[in-house]
Design goal:
This protein has about 350 residues and is α/β, with parallel strands linked by helices. It folds into two domains: about 140 residues, ATPase, nucleotide binding domain (Nucleotidyltransferase, domain 5, 2-Layer Sandwich), CATH 3.30.420; about 130 residues, 2-Layer Sandwich (Nucleotidyltransferase, domain 5), CATH 3.30.420.40. It is built from nine helices and ten strands. Strands 3-2-1-4-5 form a five-stranded mixed sheet, sandwiched between helices. A five-stranded mixed sheet has the order 8-7-6-9-10. Strand 7 and strand 8 form a beta hairpin. Helix 4 runs parallel beside helix 6. The longest helix has about 30 residues. It starts with a strand and ends in a 17-residue tail after the last helix. The protein binds 5'-O-[(R)-(carboxyoxy)(hydroxy)phosphoryl]adenosine. The site of 5'-O-[(R)-(carboxyoxy)(hydroxy)phosphoryl]adenosine (KG4) has 20 residues, from helix 4 and helix 5.
Amino acid sequence: MSVVILGIESSCDDTSAAVISDGILLSNVIASQKVHEAYGGVVPELASRAHQQNIVPVVSEALRQAGVDKKDLSAIAFTRGPGLLGSLLVGTSFAKGMAIGLDIPLVDVNHLHAHVLSHFVQKTREDEVPEFPFMCLLISGGNSQIVVAKSPYEMEIVGKTIDDAAGEAFDKCAKVLGLPYPGGPHIDRLAAEGNPKAFRFSRPHIEGLDYSFSGLKTSFLYTVRDGLKAHPDFIEKNKADLAASLQYTIIKILLDKLGKALSQYPVSHVAIGGGVSANSGVREAVARFCKERGVKAWIPERAFTTDNAAMVAAAGYFKYLQKQFCDLSLPPYSRVTV
Ligand code: KG4
């Protein structure tokens, strides 16, 4: 009998449900919340309410698209954390209720592990997957980490941000330029038309493999402030160059530490994941970086970079195979310590 997993993701502002059967993706439905755009960032209470509205139709649609009846499900995998507590509560409570109703096991998934394992979402049996151990540069709106994945169950964070995440650096600097939230994709688009060497922003000098983006953010802010003092139309005239130089600096910071990590933890496969891995410049730079070092690069399909339930179902499938089920009493968690 096939193992059919329903994955549920509700950690931030995307409500998503996906179905995989014996590891093969059958559906992946995502409802993104537009309500936050007017506020320039995610408003947690509004996110929870939108999840409540979306979760039933999103799960029904994922089952419908997969051609699967809920009675055929083997287990339900859900994101238990880290993320916004109110948002996580909606997905967690829904998953628990459905698992009780269907009398099937529940599998809890760490959202960050799911991003790392997003490369195991297979659409066909022929789709290749990374070999363990591999390194993953996990870059999203809330996290910037270098993870060594020894197996689907064993991951070591060897570097992480000590302040802002890469996505935050994109979004906050984009805000300074007056771009809509989230600004990352807008910077990406503008950067394609600008000169990456037009402006120089500061880069961190931190020992080891940890990241920092707050200095870059401040230096970007000062450049724009001083520019505006000199010319009121400074932003309009230099938008593309500012975006290109910002993107260039973020990529330099990311790859500098990735290079150091690779010399400390020599692996032959390197992956990227998380929302910022949708960035064109990051994708190109990581592909080039891997080619130069003779390691295999894993660049995810854009649909699997931002929050999605396909990766949650894939991570849940691994745990299901090991019978790593979740007790119904376990609550969601907002932060991760490992
Ligand atoms: O993984 P994700 O969906 O969830 C959070 O951790 O919130 O990542 C969202 C982040 C945002 O900061 C967004 O600006 C960034 O990913 N992002 C991008 C691009 N697409 C999304 N940043 C740069 N370039 C992009 N094309």
